[in-house]
Amino acid sequence: MAFREVFWNISYGYLVYVLALIALAIWLFSFYRRYQLWRQGRPDERFREIGERIGVFIQTVIVDIFVHRKFLRQPFSGIMHLTIFWGFIILLLASAVDAISYYSGYHLQGAPYLWFSLISDLGGFLILAGILMAAFRRYLWKPKSLNSVLDDGILLASMTAIIITGYMIEGLRQAATEIRPHPDWAIWSPGGWVFAKLFIDLSEGALRSWHKFLWWFHSVLTIGIILYSGLAFSKLQHVIVSPLNIFFRSLGPLAAPSPIDIEKAEIMGVGEIKDFTWKQLLDLDACTNCGRCEDVCPAWATNKPLSPRKLVQDLKGHMLKLSSNSVHSPEIRPSLIGEGPTEAEIWACTTCAACQEACPVYVEHILKIIDLRRHLVLAQNKMPESAQLMLRNMQMRGHPWAGAQSLRLRGDWTTNLDLKILAEGDHINTLLWVGCTGALVDRNVEVTVSLTRVLKAAGVDFAVLGEGETCCGDPARRAGYEFQFQLMAEQNIEIFKSHHIQEIITSCPHCYNIIKNEYPKYGGQFKVIHYSQLLWDLLKQEKLNLLNEIHSTLTYHDPCYLGRYNGLYSESREILKMIPKVTLKEMKRSKERSFCCGGGGGHMWIEEQPGTQKISQKRIEEVMKIEVDTVVTSCPYCLQMFEESIENKDSLKAKDLVEMVELSLKKSS
Amino acid sequence: MHTIVCVKQVPDPEIPPAKFKIDPVAKKVIPPPGVPPVISVYDERAVEAACRLKDKHKGKITVISLGTEKATDVVRHAISMGADDGYVLQDEAFENLDSFGTAYVLGKAIQKIGGYDLILCGRQAADWGAGQVGSILGEILGLPVITLACDIQAEDKKLKVKRILKDGFEVIEAPMPALVTVSSEIGLPRLPAGMALMLARRKQIPIWKAKDIGADLSELDRSKAHTEITEIFIPTREMKCEMISGATPAEMAANLVSKLATMI
To answer: What whole-number distance in Å separates Cα of residue A592 and Cα of residue A634?
Structure first.
């Protein structure tokens, strides 16, 4: 019966446990000190609904850790991490099995033992393969978003040493006890077998003393790495901190800012590291600097100063600097904004959430940026002039548009459309919420008017607020001007309630997101639907029929606030596919990996960093690559941005989804 | 330091001219419905100037506005920017006043408030743009007047004001109290933030009638005789386009230059 003796040739083997315990104690202590860093943050509601949290955690562990869903979007580094991860899981389990069998007296024997040997060795192979890929990527390939520090090298070298010495120990034992009497057993441990063949001519004494030496070297190195990772808070800590961070991930709507209690608020946004919540600080340590966020960030892709990776790392650097003893006095304490992220970085974000979608450990970048903006706007009155103009317009005129761009008045678009316009005291079930851009900007008014015609054709009973509609508050909230948002939210909720409105159809995904996901905290619970959802329902019920052929090869651009923020990807595509003769092509980056148009987070009005490429231009380049004649979207910002960036309107047109639907509707005559 | 700022509520200057209507009989401008009136842009800069002085020297800012009851909105706006108190001057007798009448009413209210070091006005109102009230008010109150300020510094009872000129600026000193009218070059007004917004929302804005400030009605009637509006109309704008001809770009440029020379 095949088997092997655990602790063969080793006396005082239990010392390993003693050393491990000491290392563990030191590790726990250093972890505790880190915990104290997080604890300086403000409270965060991440302990509520613990049952749901555990459920989501298990689900996320399976999908994003075991199966590596997010990692594998980058195939090379995804496979690299996958092999190392599973390799270590195998080795950990194997070590556990060894320990259990040794102390329980129940030994694996025969075929199960041989299979066990093979699988354990395979674990090592997986790790070595992953390390090779990692070293190649880090030191030869050098992708731009990957920043190498000493810690990376230490971990790769020590992991290699641990695996190789593991095989050597196995080989030395096999050379001494197995390879001659049971060569058919030895082959089941291929990693060791290689070394057994190599060492076969050594004397038993030499084999034993080399084995003893390497065994202790291997064990002490392994324990040493745990110790090192604790003391230096190495990247290796992510094996603990990342799952912890995933456990405490936000369960609510994506990147919904927390309300500021105006009556009691002592701090406005984040001006110091301790103004962050403890979860936001935990985020900083959960980040492994992998660069996936940077790779997908539209600001970074167009040479703006913001990289979400750098932002998180800079905040972390600042937190650590403050925790070191040298800078305790407040006078010489460096300020968070400037020493950490700069104002230019903070204002470059479009809140598109590509970074959060890419992050395998669920770091929440956007709310940090909004909190920093809150501090700049509310406490310091510092913001780009274009942001200030937008916010002033919202305050004085109830919408962010102004100047020459808005030669219309709020209610002008309703002229001659024979719509129900709500007057005081009118009650209606369904409201069509048009949004500022849809009411004030010529190109978008065309879309709004088209939408009302389609809804009427389908027999939908709805009303509009006309000149009584104001902004939903989204641009103010994303720009950090929280109180303006709060005023608008409260005012709008009051209006909805006064008209007994139950259901709100929105045209703009930004209005959709904020009314659906963020108004409830202010007492506004309404059924909110985006018109793409409604159109899809109407088509399914055959209240609308798409019969006219449109000979067009087109692509659909996912608006961030519809897709990533609310998971609506299929409705618009299904609608487009129903139009006869339409060919739908997908861009390389689509659905949850869609690339922003550049208009979110207030950037419809906040000027893009001068001298950099426009984000919308970059997106249009991606559209042009797949050779389509039309780019369809369902967001007024995206449409505006594309109209601005398409140079040759004969070869590429930007259309709204509802315009395509109206074109394809059967004419009544 | 106590600063009193006079602010006016005007139809939103962003309204496209074509949206206005004219009542030719009453000789009145009718702004389109549904567009909320706003604080006159220059007056808002005057509030900003007062806030900057308060940031530096502490003290108090009082805001007054002559207008309808809705003018409480612009007073609130000034309070949310950093003013401490505000009053609206509203009375039937105050309607249709010209610059003289307006200055008289404002002067009465300022005398009632009293204890001021500095009076600030916008350089002109964003609707009528007469630019008279500040200077007349200074005359009524017997104060030194400096117009078109782009920077105001206060040093013990003395003002140092940078004043915009056509081709630069001059710096003028004056003893306090004084009256200064503020030009837009002073810079963007601040965004009201945080608590101030909420406080301003809750603040009671008293409305003063003619009798509250001791305004003499016969004086008001008399001042109305100073000006008369003879006609009011929306100007039509004409654009003419002339293509400059020439065989070569150099010739075209030369023709353009000679054309321009005749137009100057």
So the answer is: 15
